[in-house]
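All the exercises in this workshop are built on plain-text protein records. There is nothing in a record beyond a sequence line and a structure line. A learned vocabulary of local backbone shapes supplies the integers on the structure line. The question running through the whole workshop is how a given chain folds. Here is such a record, shown just as it appears in the course material:

***
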Amino acid sequence: GVQPCVLADSWLDDTARRRLWGALQERLRRRFRPVLESCRIGAAKPQPEAFACALRALGAPPHEV
């Protein structure tokens, strides 16, 4: 089967537009599991650790991706 996830390069937003980003994140979290954000996992795309974290969250070995 196919198991999608979201791997986003995001940051903590303290601007006036943070409500828009928060609403988008909420929609993504309702539709996808997991939603991984670079600010929370400590790695950003294209760093290999970001993709390794996504694989661990999905429980998938690299050869299946």
User: Anything to note?
Assistant: The first helix runs from residue 18 to 31. The first strand starts at residue 6 and ends at 8.
